[in-house]
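Researcher: We are triaging several targets before committing to wet-lab work. For this one, the compound of interest is fe (ii) ion. I'm pasting the protein sequence and the ligand SMILES. What I need is the predicted three-dimensional arrangement of the protein with the ligand bound, expressed as structure tokens, so it can go straight into our comparison scripts without reformatting.
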Amino acid sequence: MKPNINDKEYRGAMGRLLVMYTQVDYLIMRACAERIATVPDEEAQLSMAKQVGDESRHVRIQQQWIKNFGADTTPVFSELQQAMFLQHFRSLNWIDFLTDMYVCIEALGGEAVEQIVPMADPGTRESLKVPLQDEIDHVAFGLGRLKQELSALPEAERYTYIESISSRLDFLDDSLHDMGLDIPGMFKAVGADYQCVVDSVMQRRQEILESFALPVAA
Ligand SMILES: [Fe+2]
Ligand SMILES: [Fe+2]
């Protein structure tokens, strides 16, 4: 059922989701900016530099919208949680970075956001237009690049890695749920059926994993 967008509960939960989304974009921007110096080649550098610019723009758009929406701007993620996020990405080798950043955060996180959009009020929908359009580029770069790196591995190693992706994703998902956020509650308050969101994220995840097992198109 579509929520009443003037409802206090809806506005509170959407406000929290907007702040969370903006914080994640900001952290992605920071993590990618740090990584640019050590990526394997210029192609990756150029794509990630574009992404850093895009995320910065998303943060600005969202901050402006959060203000107009009148949401509580208290951060969802604490200073410590933000530092842990950056430390996590800093500690990863290139292939794990691609998995965690682009499969987990960009592709699957983006899928969850996409599920919210149809329920959202017109202003929120509008504010997500540019960000969600740019995310398509980020996902295309990250998944394409990960596929390329995987195809360069010996076959046995490639399959072992693909198998390990699920546990990496589960770990990140558990970390998010361990942060004490009532994500199902927030989704419900903005009119999304949490189980439907989870199902569509899991389906996307399955499709991505299956695509990695296929040979890279010439
Ligand atoms: Fe973004
Ligand atoms: Fe992005």
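Researcher: Any quick observations?
Model: The radius of gyration is 17 Å.
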